[in-house]
Write the structure tokens for this entry.
Amino acid sequence: MALKILVIGSGGREHCLAWSLARSDGVAQVWIAPGNGGTAAEAKCANLAIAPLDFAALVRFAKIEHIDLTVVGPEAPLAAGIVDAFKAEGLAIFGPTQAGAQLEASKVWAKALMAEAGIPTAAAQSFNDLAAACDHVRAVGAPVVIKADGLAAGKGVTVAFTTEEALDALDGLSRFGEAAATIVVEEFMAGEEASVLAFTDGRTIRVMLAAQDHKRIGEGDSGANTGGMGAYAPTPLVGNALLKQIEAKILVPTVEALQKRGIDYRGVLYAGLMIDGSGQARVVEFNCRFGDPETQVILPLLETPLEEVLLATVAGRLEAVPLVWRTETAACVVLAAAGYPGEYRQGDAISGLEAARAEGACIFHSGTHQVGERTLTAGGRVLALTHLGADLPAALNNVYRAVAHVHFDGAYYRRDIGWRARRLGL
């Protein structure tokens, strides 16, 4: 019997999850709460006007519609305990419990777990007092990394190359409110960043293709951090030998450390990594869910039906489900509204989507809504376009050819996705 699935969230990641699930013959219907302009038009999909943090309404809908599986996209509902709420009602849901979501919701908590488990990461100190954090920065100097302890939508991290930049970053953390009540000052790690995500049912780990995200707004990785301006997978920065090392020295010890704390972690374990010049990986941060835009390059390459993997993860039988991948490379480019990641424009009409789709691109909406037949901008990151190719240069050529068709006033995108791999000749 074909499944009925509920996806929680409204961004490009959730559009990609819904698209991946809906294209399977094993799925009858996908609801997205609340969804966006793109999910509303996807085959077998429908938007649902319920906020991701309205657990009571989501549980009620899942019961009334006999939802077979709920999939949580963003971190905020996971950190707030949506999985606990659904499990208490006997409902199947993909994602870690509130206890497991601390891995992302508190950088201090995650650092303590890594220290206990001997997981390689940067040295760090935490502060509850801004003045004390400033004194520490003056003492240690730069470069240094400043982080809000809690959830800050991917924008609570600053890599400061001067003491003045670090002090400015500390002062600016106040805009994140309670998320920055505790401040983390971390050792700067040089190298290449990569994202390695894995499914885990608390015992078995199934590692996904390694990806490289592009967090900075400017080309050459300059300017402010964003939620992510593009990605590609698999990244040649993480070969098979290194991927096995990451699994053995980072992913497995993390799951074991969670078990020791009595946490049955089921969902996605996302390791943001720094690969140094000697090829060793250290953890920059952990996330407790699919990445955005990493999801938009990983799932289009997954041949195993996604719902089979998710259900096996929830049921604790992941060992019975191998992951099968396509042999191509996927590249994704994010189109953002003017002003992002600061104050940005909304309500601009988007054109060229059908022409981009005719080029073979998958178009995942992040911040859009429909007004009649028109698609309008409604967020900072507006669209994520993904295309495949035989290798990275081909995938990039394909996706940028599609991007050229899409227009809205003030549209901005990086033209150098994959530049680090190209610079290294990979």
User: Anything to note?
Assistant: The chain has four domains: 3-95, 129-181, 192-320, 329-424. The chain has a mean pLDDT of 95. Residues 3-95 form a domain with the Rossmann fold fold (CATH 3.40.50.20). DSSP finds 14 helices and 22 strands in the chain.
